[in-house]
Specification:
Layout (H helix, E strand, L loop, with lengths): L19 E3 L7 H10 L4 E3 L14 E2 L8 H7 L5 E5 L7 H14 L4 E7 L9 H16 L2 E7 L5 H4 L6 E4 L11 H12 L14 E4 L7 H12 L4 E4 L2 H7 L7 H15 L9 H6 L6 H7 L12
Parallel strand pairs: 1-2, 1-4, 2-3, 4-5, 5-6, 6-8, 7-9
């Protein structure tokens, strides 16, 4: 059985329930989750920085602009919500502060439950610098007193073709490390299973749980390049960089130092073995196995269109 954004009704098809606020509803993950909840009949409120970019979903309520860092705007946007699906903010030097502000606004608004999208290997000493942000956010949610569930997702499968240049080279200091990358669709299906009020199990069954959301197997970036080669019909190669080479090859993007460090350390986390975890959480939550890279590429040919040779 496979899933798409159009055919997932949700377990047991609940027809109503308490209001769920979905942040990042104009994005790749929040938008998918919002669609699934609406399809399942769950009352949904869509949140985003720019309300004009939010999807038009039948029956869904759209909140005014609610940046995470604006505590008062977030509190108003969350008034009356029972559950908050909190997609992490875009990377920035202030991301932890923004997350804390959003969590505090949720508790002030009377939100009873937060389902937070974290990252695999979140820890205070994680190699991947942005994973440290997730750990700090988790820590604040834990002491807030609100019921909570953490979804720690792995690298996105979509990122593998996206990070491969049109020259057919995937570069990074990942060495021979492995990563069990996961599809957005699988994260969205797992999140929906956790968010649904009722169904096979009450939402309280997920209280305090941390789910590691991964693909079905861990592979090296060299193996990912082989899979991309089969899909694109041309040779795609992986070039393992040193740290110095990685910083140098990314220096021309004009990105700030903290952002480049995030890019580089995401690969170094793979080299350190911190992304090799393979979990059965997607299977347990959704009742079906997660997609592998080959399946993802078959279903998303646009993801590697830039790798196709002319003609």
């Amino acid at each position: 059985m496979t899933s798409s954004d159009d055919d997932r009704p949700g377990p047991d098809d609940p027809t109503n329930g308490p209001l769920t606020a979905v942040t990042g509803a104009s994005g790749a993950l929040g938008g998918r989750v919002a669609k699934r909840l609406v399809r399942a009949g769950v009352p949904v409120r869509l949140l985003g920085r720019d309300p004009s970019r939010l999807p038009e979903l039948p029956g869904a309520d759209t909140a005014p602009a609610a940046p995470y860092g604006d505590g008062e705007a977030m509190r108003r946007a969350l008034a009356g919500a029972h559950t908050l699906f909190l997609v992490s903010a875009h990377e920035s030097p202030d991301r932890v502060r923004e997350h804390i502000s959003a969590v505090d606004a949720a508790t002030a608004a009377g939100v009873e439950r937060i389902v937070y999208v974290s990252f695999l290997g979140a820890a205070p000493d994680a190699t991947f610098t942005f994973a440290r942000d997730h750990w700090e956010t988790e820590a604040h949610i834990r002491v807030s007193g609100v019921r909570h569930t953490f979804l720690r997702d792995s690298w996105y499968l979509a990122g593998l073709p996206a990070m491969t240049g049109a020259d057919g080279v995937l570069r990074g200091p990942a060495g021979d490390g492995r990563v069990a990358a996961v599809a957005h669709e699988d994260i969205a299906d797992a999140a929906t299973a956790v968010l649904l009020p009722g169904g096979a199990t009450a939402d309280t069954a997920h209280d305090g749980a941390t789910y590691e959301l991964t693909g079905p197997r861990a592979f090296t970036l060299a193996e990912a390049a082989e899979e991309l080669s089969r899909a694109a019909g041309r040779a795609i190669t992986y070039v393992p960089e040193t740290r110095e080479e990685a910083y140098a090859s990314r220096s021309g993007y004009g990105a700030p130092d903290w952002e480049v460090a995030g890019w580089v350390t995401s690969y170094e986390a793979i080299a350190a073995g911190e992304m090799a975890t393979v979990s059965d959480a997607v299977q347990r939550l959704t009742g079906r196995p997660p997609k592998d890279l080959a399946s993802y590429l078959r279903e998303h040919p646009d993801s590697y269109r830039h790798l196709l040779l002319p003609g």
